């Protein structure tokens, strides 16, 4: 049986830095198995290795942003350069590790080694905000402001308690300006709620104060906001929180913590393939826990763009 071709992509800035010794252990285990894996932290080198290697297995060691970056390179090269499909194994070393939480990946060299040789492929969708990839979710509004503030002050690795200061600042200052969502590719069964601004069998327009789109049913802090999001259905699961005050925002957060937010009458859910999200204000957004910029944005999904080894 031929040895699998392995490319290991690493991020020196991932998370708290714990478990990073597992990267060296994985390289050692592969070389003991006579597998001369390629190792890089450079995106251009990653692209070159993917073009040179037949059906590689790519191990992405880092946080959600690093794993999303690698996933986007795999999808782009397969689509534009006709590069042979690669399989992806995340080695989670970030703060939240959303994709790893969903599929059970671990930052353990022995675990990753076993997946390289014995894992099975499962396809998942890949989302894009413009050209920026995401695997888990995009949100616009309050938490985007928290991530923006964190982005401005980040120095090295992020820990969960680092978020408290930007959260408190956002509670004091964020004003929940109106956000418009224009959706296309809405399944007819999702287009039956009466609080739309307008819509038909495949489009929908709605105003809210906090907008979220999920590819996976995971969110930061161990919270679950859209439990029914599926990673391989070719659709984005949208949640629109229509309240536009800090009291509404705190009510939503409490509801999420208690698992009751989906019962609120001012929480609207539907699915779509494409979203245009805009505002007359400079509303920030985040994707997979990284600051993305300000609205307007267009969000789309590429069905089954990535193969995971699980």
From TrEMBL:
Catalytic activity, EC: 2.7.1.107
GO cellular component, one term: plasma membrane
Superkingdom of source: Bacteria
Keyword annotations of the record: ATP-binding, Kinase, Nucleotide-binding, Transferase
Stored Pfam families: DAGK_cat (PF00781), YegS_C (PF19279)
Record flagged with keyword GTP-binding: no
GO MF entry, a single one: ATP binding
Entry annotated with the keyword Repressor: no
Domain DAGKc: 1-133
Enzyme's top EC category: transferase
Protein name (database record): Diacylglycerol kinase
